[in-house]
Amino acid sequence: MKVFLAGYNLDADVIAELKKNDPRQDVTPETLSAAYARISRDPRPINELRQAARAEVEKSRRSNQKIIFGLGHSSVAEHAVFNFDVIDVSRRAMEELEKFRLCSYTEKSQRYITLDSAYITPPEIRGTRFEADFHKLQKNLLALYERFYAKLKIYIWEKHADLVTEPQNKNLLEGWAKEDARYVTSLAVGAQAGLTLNARNLEKMLRRFASHSLREIRDLGASLHVLVRDIAPSIIKYPEANAYDRDTYADLRKYTQKIIKRNGLISQKNKLCRLVDYTKNGDAKILAALTARSANLSYKDALAAVQKMTLKQKREIFKICVQNMQMWDVMLREYELAELTFELIVSASCFAQLKRHRLLTLLAADYEPALGLRLPPAIEAVGLSADFIREAHDAEKLYTRLQKENPAAADYVLTNAHQRRVICKVNLRELYHISRLREDAHAQWDIHEISALMTAAAREVFPLTASFLGGKDQYAELRAKICI
Fold it and tell me: How far apart are CA 344 and CA 425, in angstroms?
């Protein structure tokens, strides 16, 4: 056996110093893509292919273009990886950035960082008759945030006096105050994130951003492209806007709204969480997959066998699945066969957390002020609800005015308490991951409630295989019940 370290990410300042002292041409991730692309047809060992690719960079670039774009082997571009510091973008822009499920993000948390007065003025608003009102609203919201944080901090410290005595709990308690105060801030507030992604996903991101209706998103894409276009020209070739990304949803919106208006619509009463579809006989299908693999049966025969099993036998299979687990372990892959589809109504604050679970299918509609506000219980407890609602309604008035002239930019004035509808499809294995994190006692209250509603619905339709759902703090108790 031979294993070589082929490379690893370096800080850009280190790379710049390296190139300064030795102006070599092979300081590019393209050579890795070129070397790995040749593996299937070149008899030389991989480490020698890497040496050859570094020695002939231009030849490697031509090879990349032929293999990736000529032959369509796009996965070759995945061997080139980039890191970006993304600073001073809006919360609204961050939602677009974090839509890509195969990228990695670490965002500056508004739970641990006290917000300052920084916010982003969208180009669509800058220099228009809306700008003065936009600045006034942002300043009012941020001033209210400071008031809320000061009062919530006192309230939370008094409510959790038992925790205050331990110095290590200070950041936790302050975080609870900050995360509730942030609900009054807008989607224009500044955000930062570290971004890591491969070239294949970067090119997709650049195309989508170039096609976006918001200028901030288009500018973000252009800024990313400028940084890589000379470093890796052979693996990022088609970053331009296209009709598919630019027009498809806009055309769908225009057509469907016309049809709905013509035909009329009877809306169901809004619920935070509604299970709209799920895998029928999900318990049996998971058990059948486990049996098929373990007993080396066809899936059809395994399903027939499961149908003949007693409830005790089925429970024993489930028990074996979890008896050796530790809290950080994930459920077996067979649990992906059972899926659930939910319609959720979530706040912008909750959505910011939900979207981090990138294995979900998450289909978000536009923000809709008519869905109301999601106010933190602590805000009501300290008597600040009226102030919150008054300022949020001022935001909605400006939103309505902007909607008439520039709908895309209207979202910037809405708060983290405003809501949207989301269709969320999740398999049971991923729901276990969500439940462990988001139903834990230390989880943020908003996503904790949504997660609890989702898992309660899952237990209804998958009474056996979903019975281990719960937060990290419940893990030992749940496991003990199953493994009696």
Answer: 11
Q: Is the pLDDT of residue 365 over 80?
A: yes
Q: Which of 114-118, 395-399, 475-479 has the lowest mean pLDDT?
A: 114-118
Whether residue 285 lies inside any domain: the answer is yes
Number of domains in the chain: 2
- Reference 221, options 238, 244, 243; nearest CA is 238
The residue whose two tokens read 């693996």 is 235
Distances (CA, A) of 325 to 328, 436, 442, 479: 8, 13, 22, 9
Helix extents (H) in 186-298: 199-210, 215-228, 243-263, 282-295
Residue 379 lies in a domain: no
Kind of pairing, strands 361-367 and 419-427? antiparallel
**pTM as predicted:** 0.90
Report if residue 24 sits inside a domain: yes
Residue where a domain stops, chosen among 310, 335, 360: 335
Edge-first strand order for the sheet with 361-367 is 273-278, 339-347, 419-427, 361-367
Give residue 37's domain range.
Answer: 12-79
Whole-number average pLDDT of the chain = 90
Is residue 363 in some structural domain? no
Judged by average pLDDT, the poorest of 31-35, 143-147, 281-285 is 31-35
